[in-house]
Amino acid sequence: MNKRMAIVATALAVCVPLAGCGSRSASGVTGERDGSGESIPAVRAEALYKANCIACHGAELEGGVGPNLQKVGGRQGQPAIASQIRQGGKKMPPFRASLSDEEVETLASWLASRK
After folding, report:
1. Prediction pTM value
2. Which of these CATH numbers, 3.30.56.10, 1.10.287.130, 1.10.760.10, 3.30.450.40, describes 2-112?
C-alpha cells in the first residue's frame, strides 16, 4: 500500500505543475474547433486529463490506481464529477488548489459526456 501511495504521490508531483501550462483564455468555449475538428473545450479537457488524471485513471480512462472512467457519465452527472475533482475522496486527492473552477468544469463536462 505504501508503495502504491508513493507512486501516486510521485505522479502527482510530476503532473500537477504541468496543469498551469497553456492558455486559460475563455475563447472557443462556444463551439470553436481546432485543426483536427475537435471542439476546443474537448481539446482542453483532454489536455487537463493527461496532465492531472492519466497517472491514476489510465491513458484510455480504463482505470488503474483509480477507477475506470470510460462510462463515468452514465453513473454520475457533471455536478457530481466536478465535486469529486474538487473535493477528492477515498484514495483520490482533491484538485481544488491546483485546478481553476473553469478547468474543473471543463474536465467534468467532458467526463460526464462519457457514457
Report:
1. 0.69
2. 1.10.760.10
